[in-house]
Specification:
Elements: H1 6-9, H2 20-23, H3 36-44, H4 53-57, H5 64-72, H6 76-84, H7 90-96, H8 100-104, H9 116-129, E1 145-149, H10 153-164, E2 168-172, H11 181-184, H12 193-206, E3 209-211, H13 222-228, E4 231-234, H14 257-268, H15 277-283
Parallel strand pairs: 1-2, 1-4, 2-3
Helix pairs in contact: 3-5, 5-6, 5-9, 6-9, 7-9
């Protein structure tokens, strides 16, 4: 706990946002970063609450009071070490997580909760800019080969952890690039794709291999994977929509969310949004990442 009276002295403040007149000119993120003083004040609000329910609120079990204390002390390397010990991709969660940790924050009982998610994002971005984030290459390889089907958040996290354990990991992705929902589900104004590319490049440096346009069960035979790999991780996600009988469903322009979001993200990325029309037709009529 950096400042015992911090929660009494400072109130919750979120970073500013770029003017609307500027935001409408692009699809990029528009939330700005704290300056050093504001970040210090926000981390100071984390109180010595005895039982940090934020730990339970966080699905990853992030060690939140400890990294808040490190931020208050401006010890960014320690803050990054604490955060990365439980979280493979803080740059993603710091942008798109619904922050159940903040809902569990004890300070939130009678004051606005600590800005945990924003502090998390600042830790990882400062860590990248200061060179603390480096490839973690395993010292010894096990000789075991693992196939991970799907390159969404779950597949990437599984690939990272298996690679750290020394296994040889290959990720199979049916699309033209890795990321799953991170790339083709979440709009750029919440998560710009250079953030995803940065992490994919890091995973490749660590030894994880990626195969694109690899639709397991369609153009990648399942039996080939069974013969070649010692284990297979299914991280296919679920892109098959529920076609509910809602009034107006049949109207022109009413689309399934994932169908729309993928086309929009491709268009923003300068890609042909309809290049995989046949594949998309298969996906949205029941064939998922794991067609088998």
């Amino acid at each position: 706990m950096g400042k015992p009276t911090g929660f009494l002295e400072f109130t919750r403040e979120l970073p500013g946002k770029k003017p609307v007149s500027e935001r409408v000119q692009h699809y990029k993120e528009f939330t700005e970063l704290y300056d050093g003083e504001k970040l210090n004040q926000q981390s100071a609000r984390c109180m010595n609450c005895g039982v940090p329910f934020c730990h339970q609120g966080c699905p990853l079990g992030n060690i939140i009071p400890e990294f808040n204390d490190a931020v208050y002390r401006n010890d960014w390397e320690e803050a990054y070490a604490i955060l990365s010990s439980t979280n493979n991709f803080p740059e993603f969660t710091g942008r798109i997580c619904p922050a159940p940790c903040e809902a569990a924050c004890v300070l939130g009982i009678n004051q606005p909760a600590v800005t945990i998610e924003e502090i998390e994002k600042h830790i990882i971005e400062i860590a990248f800019s200061n060179g603390f984030v480096k490839p973690r290459k395993p010292a010894v390889r096990s000789g075991k080969k693992v196939a991970v089907i799907g390159s969404g958040p779950a597949g990437l996290a599984a690939a990272a952890q298996l690679n750290y354990a020394g296994h040889l990991v290959t990720v199979f992705e049916r699309d033209d690039a890795a990321g799953g929902l991170l790339r083709y589900g979440i709009p750029d104004f919440k998560l710009e794709k250079w953030v995803v590319e940065r992490r994919i490049s890091l995973l490749e440096e660590e030894g994880v291999q990626f195969r694109y346009h690899a639709h397991v069960g369609v153009n990648v035979p399942v039996n080939d994977l069974i013969r070649e790999y010692h284990a297979i991780v299914l991280a296919c996600g679920s892109t098959v929509p529920r076609d509910l009988p809602i009034p107006g469903r049949e109207l022109k322009g009413v689309q399934f969310a994932m169908h729309f979001l993928k086309q929009q993200n491709k268009q923003v990325a300068g890609k042909d949004a309809f290049a995989d029309a046949e594949t998309e037709s298969n996906i949205y009529t029941g064939a998922d990442q794991c067609a088998w």
